[in-house]
């Protein structure tokens, strides 16, 4: 999509299916060109939604959106989704890679994993990307820096290169790929995190030269730095991108 149409940007859901329902009630899907989720569907931050039932409702609602609207829905992979994404059926991850995943991310919650494996989530998993570009903005869960971006390449080549790596959990030495690792400020082992872990307050920059819209770093409200935005405000706001202009709405 170029610089036309209407894109609804839904930041970190964290099992809060009511957040999605409110947005759908405010925006007739028939008039929307894209629903773009910024990731983190799993692991509730609000105790009310920290149940397997809330996760069940969240996954079914998003899956229904994908089934109904197909190419209108884009899911960005978040750090809280990673352990479930790579433990899903048909993930293709071997035991050494899975061991490395669990060493870094921990073991997935048993009840949640049982639910995930009981549902038909094939379209849900297949819809995930690491990055997306439209209407002049780059979307990822946490932000992209020159660690994973080349100014010598066209924008879409960079985006395609990132998305090709979504299944590359480990490198040739069975070490967790840097794309999935955190920086020192988030307790990781890198100078700064990759696009699933980059900290908005301490690591984010606009060095790639393209405005970005991200989630991941939670705050009491949305934030802006230069031409870029962080929309993770504890399910209190979402974005409407129309002809390259962003409107932020509260729910």
Describe this structure in words.
- The chain is an alpha/beta fold.
- The protein is built from seven helices and eleven strands.
- It has a six-stranded mixed β-sheet with strand order 4-3-2-1-10-11. Strands 5-6-7-9-8 form a five-stranded mixed β-sheet, covered by helices on one side.
- A hairpin with a 2-residue loop joins strand 10 and strand 11 (245-250).
- It is globular, with a radius of gyration of 17 Å.
- The protein starts with 5 loop residues before the first strand and ends with a strand.
- The mean pLDDT is 95.
Q: Biggest sheet, strands in spatial order?
A: 4-3-2-1-10-11
Largest sheet: 6 strands, mixed
Helix content: 25-40%
Alpha carbon gap, first and last residue? 26 Å
Q: Which structural class fits the helix and strand makeup?
A: alpha/beta
Compute the gyration radius: what is it?
17 Å
Number of helices: 7
Shape: globular
Please summarize what this structure is.
The protein has 251 residues and is α/β, with parallel strands linked by helices. The chain is 27% helix and 17% strand.
Question: How is this fold's topology laid out?
Answer:
Layout: E1 6-10, H1 17-26, E2 34-37, H2 52-69, E3 73-76, H3 82-85, H4 95-105, H5 110-118, H6 122-126, E4 128-129, E5 132-134, E6 137-139, H7 155-164, E7 212-214, E8 223-225, E9 228-230, E10 237-242, E11 245-250
Relevant terms:
alpha/beta, globular, 251 residues, 7 helices, five-stranded mixed beta sheet
């Amino acid at each position: 999509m170029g610089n036309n149409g209407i894109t609804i940007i839904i930041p970190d859901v964290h099992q809060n299916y009511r957040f999605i329902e409110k947005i759908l009630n405010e925006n007739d899907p028939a008039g929307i060109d894209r629903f773009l989720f910024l990731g983190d569907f799993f692991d509730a931050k609000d105790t009310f939604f920290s149940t397997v039932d809330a996760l069940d409702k969240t996954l079914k609602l998003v899956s229904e959106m994908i089934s109904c609207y197909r190419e209108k829905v884009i899911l960005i992979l978040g750090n809280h989704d990673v352990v479930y994404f790579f433990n899903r059926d048909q993930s293709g991850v071997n035991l050494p890679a899975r061991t490395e995943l669990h060493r870094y991310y921990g073991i997935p919650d048993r009840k949640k994993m049982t639910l995930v494996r009981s549902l038909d989530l094939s379209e849900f998993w297949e819809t995930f990307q690491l990055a997306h570009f439209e209407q002049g903005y780059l979307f990822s869960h946490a932000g992209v820096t020159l660690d994973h971006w080349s100014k010598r390449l066209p924008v879409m080549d960079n985006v395609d290169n990132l998305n090709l790596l979504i299944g590359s959990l480990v490198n040739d030495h069975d070490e967790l790929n840097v794309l999935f690792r955190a920086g020192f400020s988030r307790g990781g082992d890198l100078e700064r995190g990759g696009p699933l872990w980059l900290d908005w307050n301490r690591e984010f920059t606009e060095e790639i030269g393209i405005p970005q819209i991200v989630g991941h770093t939670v705050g009491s409200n949305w934030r802006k730095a230069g031409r870029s935005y962080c929309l993770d405000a504890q399910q209190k706001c979402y974005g409407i991108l129309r002809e390259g202009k962003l409107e932020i709405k509260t729910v």
